Amino acid sequence: MPAASSKSDKIRKLPASRTSRIRIESVNSKISKYFYYIATVAIIGIVISALGITNGYFHYFNYKDYYSSEVKVFSPFYYLGYLGIFLIIAFAPPPDYLLVPFYGYLASLNYFNVYLVFIVAVLAMMFLTAIEYFGGRFAGRPLLLKVLLHVGITERDISVADDWISNHGIASIFIATFVPYFKNVTSLAAGTLKMNSLKFFITNAVGFSLRFAILVYIGYEGINVFLPSFDVEFRSILYLIAIASSLILAYAILVKALHNQDKESSAIQG
């Protein structure tokens, strides 16, 4: 008898309409899975475009008028220096998606060198992942889990990260550098699985460098959205961003709602 067909072979044998439906459902399921990340990006796009467009028409805010006040307000961060940047990005509760653009903005006020902010941010995150990696590698798993429960990381989180790394290899480490919280769990899992340390750190360095380059740039240049002239120069782009972000957000909400409805229906039938 012929060997059993693989899942992909079975899908290819289905009618075209059903195959398309399965693929659409698969895409929708992935969108639902990452709903909060998609929704966050879409909302940021809507807010930025709305600020730029409305400020261009009404001129309600021009950050250059407040420059001297900002210098006084943010001066404490200057006295903390680059060591303060390192410690805050590595260990402070707020996510680096907020902290790194903030320090990029301070660099635009000439508090810090923008390139040094980028380097220190990458080193801070590399230091944190190194602690997590070597903790996972050399601490016993039961002891590690007892400690991690105090910071909200459960055995299930580690198991999910284990499966993710086993299925996707080094690519999973690169992807995780762009996902808040998951990068920490993945670093711990990589240590417990004794992943090659050189590959682990090189991949993290590349991933964090790309992400922090974008975040520092957003903080350094993004404040220009509060210049009335910004709307005149980029009005058409802002409208496109607003429309695209609104459509993405609406679609993500719809998919999430349908996904929840399907789960409820399955629970009732079960």
Automatic annotation (TrEMBL):
It is a multi-pass membrane protein. Residues 108-220 form the VTT domain. The chain crosses the membrane at residues 34-61, 73-92, 112-134, 200-220, 236-255. Its main location: membrane. The keyword Acyltransferase does not apply. Pfam families: VTT_dom. Signal peptide: none annotated. This is DedA family protein. It comes from Candidatus Mancarchaeum acidiphilum.
